[in-house]
Amino acid sequence: MSALAYGDAIRIAFEHLLERHPNVFVIGQGLWSPWYVGNSMTDLDKKFGQERLIDTPVSELACTGAAVGASLCGYRPIVVHPRMDFMLYAMDAMVNQAAKWSHMFGAQSHPALTVRGIVNRGGEQGAQHSQALHSWFAHVPGLRVVMPYSSIDARDLLIASVLCDDPVVYIDDRWLYELEQPDQPIRELRLADEGPKILVEGGDITLVGASYSTHLCMQAAKRLRKEGIDAEVIDLRVINPLDCSVVMESVGKTGRLCVVDGGWSTCGLAGEVIAQVSETLPPAGWRAAPRRLTLPDAPAPTSKPLEQRYYTSVDDIMRTAKAICV
Amino acid sequence: MLVELMNTRYSLGDLALAEECHQPIDLAGSDLERLLGQLKVMLLIRYAEELIGDMVTNGKIVCPCHLGIGQEAIAVGVSANLRASDRVFGGHRSHSHYLALGGDVGKLMAEVLGKVSGCSRGMGGSMHLYGVEHGFYGSVPIVGGSVPLAVGAALAAKMDLRGDVGVAYFGDGTAEEGVVHESLNLASKFKLPMLFVCENNMFASHMHINLRQPADSVSRYAAAHCVPWEVVDGNDVVAVEKASARLVARSRAGDGPGFLEAVTYRWRGHVGPREDTDVGVNRKGDLASWKKRDPVKRLAEALSASGSLDGKRYAAIQQEIRARVARAWEEAEAAPYPDISALLDWVYAE
After folding, report:
1. Chain B residue closest to A58 (CA)?
2. What's the CATH code of the domain at B301?
3. B183/A62 CB distance under 8 A
4. Backbone phi, then psi, for B232, in 5-degree steps?
5. ipTM for the complex?
6. By residue range, what is the domain housing residue B85?
């Protein structure tokens, strides 16, 4: 099998959806000149036409709201926000409208839209071009939140998101775009059936991540093995609704847990995973207190040394994992 | 100098004055039987909302109810130009929008009581109404929240190529939300089949438009986005129907969106049955005058003057509709609540 890069995988998912599903269209800023989304949307407008790849005015809220409206009329729109930071203007359409629609109208109507928010950080971009706000959306009942780590998931979970009848926030990470994995044939999955998966088995410690933080965990697990520590790596994949049973089972075996998250700590994803496991696993089952590795509670800096300190590294995970395993 | 010019250009003039426009409406050229039908729908809305107001007062209804008594002609006049395949969205004050499209009064009553037989299966209450079989895609109480959704429905309609339109009802307060401007720009630039209907009742909650905006006509926002607009007496159902007919016809023909500003006045307070003449809003005198611009009375009097509605028949119609509303209420009271399982089962489709 040939190799599939994450960024290409996303483009292939768009192609698959646009080719096979005539009710899919894409709307968002920059679609006719998608230089800031890597190779993940190149030439889609030329292939499928500008009526289905709709580049828009600078109106995040109206465009996301319009996608919600179109989704109520039989379409499956994908809204693209080149950065999650910009997507905050669209909060009403996502949180007040799409997330509530099914429930507040008695399950008679479902906004089948996908909002693609891209985490695009580093490179001294600073506080308003760097955020990973997945925990906000995972807090909201009614939204499904998807964070692929692998290329195959980047493709197949995007397809599953768009074919799902519920509103989905699909979050991909530019730091993963070049990452390659062995290709597999496309599968149209049912998103509601997808959840956390064990990527590497191990009995000494459970490492949990989502999206790019899973990538860090995978690298840490490799290095830990060389030092005699067998880490089990779990990729969360879907963080709302969050089904932690795989993590609970794993920690039941290892007794040790380290959750790595690209967001902030307070009320965040890592804390949620630890809370869910703690509520289930009896105190005797823990061989060490669980730990989380997150961003420091500060906006993203621009200065180089501050930025280097800001993001969690594989070394950070190594140190923490070893401390837990002592 | 420039400010004065702008104020003149974007002033509602007499339409905003309580003591103007009290005369029976002009029926010239209208089908009188059709108008009689519209009168009946306006009465249905009026009586349904009066009953809802009474039930809030006596504690039987708990959910927030925003009554549009006095504004009935707008929804009825606009709906006269709509069909079930159009896509209409409303706001917090949308009983009239739902009923004017043919929404069932029994389902409305059940909904405000949170009963499973309600139009939103008891999950929405007064502020979240749904009736897609009539083209009513939903009303939501986030001010401006549904405006871009209607634009998206118009985008879908444009893709569907069947000549359907999207409609957004909103108030003059909503015009102060940024999303309205994004939506107008989007609809205009993309030439979407879309009707923006602003029910300008001159109040946002307790604040008069003169305390919130530099001019009292919100059509200036349509002008800014190159969207054709009409300003009408919103308490004249014929004027509303004619103006919206012109705008909707353009949209169906592929000529892009239109903006209708219908000037009106709500008789009750922002929420609930009280008139709110005594909660920091000094509108007692205005309200008394505006009640003389009653859209129901002006239509009934015009029909009476035309010889097509005598007093006896009108009394019989009124009695019949009141009885219908009362029956709807009784049935709604007797209906069951949703099963507790709905709490979690209806969050996701799958």
Report:
1. B182
2. 3.40.50.970
3. yes
4. -135, 165
5. 0.96
6. 30-335
Answer yes or no: is B19 within a domain: no
- Contact flag B87-A71 (C-beta cutoff 8 Å): no
Q: Is residue B203 part of a domain?
A: yes
* Residues B237/B295, Cβ–Cβ less than 8 Å: yes
Strands (E), chain A: 3-5, 24-28, 53-55, 76-81, 114-119, 144-146, 168-173, 180-182, 197-200, 205-209, 231-235, 238-240, 257-264, 291-295
* A18 CB within 8 Å of a chain B CB: no
| Distances from the Cα of B110 to the Cα of B26, B129, B333, angstroms | 37, 11, 7
Question: How far is the alpha carbon of A143 from chain B, nearest alpha carbon, in Å?
Answer: 8
B122, B150, B349 ranked by CB distance to A69: nearest: B150
| Contact at CB, B347 and A103, closer than 8 angstroms | yes
- A97 vs B189: CB contact, 8 Å cut-off? no
Question: Token digits for A63?
Answer: 């465009």
**Hey, how many other C-beta atoms are within 10 angstroms of the C-beta on A187?**
10
Per-residue pLDDT of A198-245, as tens digits, reads 999 999 999 999 999 999 999 999 999 999 999 999 999 999 999 999
Structural domains in chain A plus CATH codes: 3-193 (3.40.50.970), 197-325 (3.40.50.920)
Beta strand A197-200 pairing with A24-28: unpaired
How far apart (Å, rounded) are the C-alpha atoms in residues A232 and A205? 6
pTM for the full predicted model: 0.96
Count of domains forming chain B: 1
